[in-house]
Description:
The protein is α+β, with helices and mostly antiparallel strands. The chain has 2 domains: 11-75, Alpha-Beta Plaits (2-Layer Sandwich); 85-173 and 214-406, BirA Bifunctional Protein, domain 2. It contains 14 helices and 18 strands. The protein has helices at 22-31, 60-75, 100-110, 125-144, 159-165, 167-170, 185-194, 221-228, 274-282, 284-295, 313-322, 350-355, 374-385, 394-406, and strands at residues 11-16, 39-46, 49-54, 85-87, 113-117, 120-123, 150-151, 157-158, 177-178, 214-215, 232-233, 237-246, 262-272, 300-303, 326-334, 337-348, 358-359, 366-373. The protein has an 8-stranded mixed beta sheet with strand order 4-14-15-16-18-13-12-7. Strands 1-3-2 form a 3-stranded antiparallel beta sheet, covered by helices on one side. Strands 8-10-9 form a 3-stranded antiparallel beta sheet. Helix 4 (125-144) packs antiparallel against helix 10 (284-295). 40% of the residues are buried.
Amino acid sequence: MNGAVDREPGTEVVIPAAGLPEELLDVACKLAFFVSPHVTAVERPLPDTLRVRVGEAAEAEAVARDVRAVLDGLTRGYRPLRIRRIFGPDAEPATVSAGGADLTARLLERGWARRHDAGLWCLGPRLLGLIEAIDARLQEAARDVYAAPPHAFPALIATETLRRAGYLSSFPQNAGFVSHLPQRLEALAAFQDANGDSSRIAFPPGAQPEPPDQCLPPAVCYHRFRDLAGETLEGGSVITARGTCFRYEARHNMQSLTRLWSFQMREIVYAGDAEYVAGMAERGPGVLQGLLHDLGLRGSCETATDPFFVNVFGPKRYAQVAGELKFELRLPLGGGESLAAGSLNLHQDHFGKAFGIRLAGGAPVASGCTAFGLERLAIGFLAQHGFDDGHWPDAVARRARRHALAG
């Protein structure tokens, strides 16, 4: 199937959300997909209402109950905090699209992308060329602004690494695990026999996958902290790396190119004492503004929070926003929709403690990262510039054409 998934039939459940702050409604719309696999759509027809579509009518009452539990959990301990904007346009820029779904449909029509499954896409040479052109600009910033040497990391990451990092307890809904069949002849033969003519994969007794000791990496920076585990840093350390990352965001919520299960990230990761990390972090806003200038884009940068799971959202959100530990680069897509395409992140000494990375005096290191979603930057670029590279900034168009032809 190459097009967007059609709206599925089902029962609609309307859930009042009066008084729920805007930022909590946004998180609730994401987490509502995880109350049941029968949730096929979550919408906000009114600012204070959620409309949830349930594929199985018999599940509607249970879904409504659990979505209300999500809303209650998000509001428990919630304290409003001022959102600080570092920069942003006074007015929304003109766009060629009316949101992510519309932009995805246009890319499909032009053959720039093909959908393989929920959140999994094949990118054609034109879109891939644009992504490579944008990443070339990011590599220049990593080299010239941060003096960050390039690294490459594996396609998998140890489950234990994500446990130590706190990812599995903060974002269990997004984790992806990797396993394999038992290394026993009879188990492999039983699996082979069970799946020779089967239309669905089957795991017969004794041939179930082993407990997963590897995961799909949700971000690049976790690799770096695993790389530094147990080390003592004599000074500051900075690297840049690009990798394929994975975050499962519910099958029915991954329908357009704005929300992918498998995606590319470029990160600049730094660790050292608090002064070194603060100095690196101070370069972030200038890097974002320089990127927008070179790409001819308009966007904003403001404090943000990660989509923590409902039972830890309150305290973790408060720590992030109150401490101004995370800022997001948001790009307008039209239709009142915007997309987070980059972020500036401070971790304090969390990963230093978790991985035993220390300074010469024995204290845990502080760390931070500047991260970019490459597909999201390309989508935001196309929303504002359109598909004719004759209307793109010259440097971007030249690079994109070169990469597309080389591919």
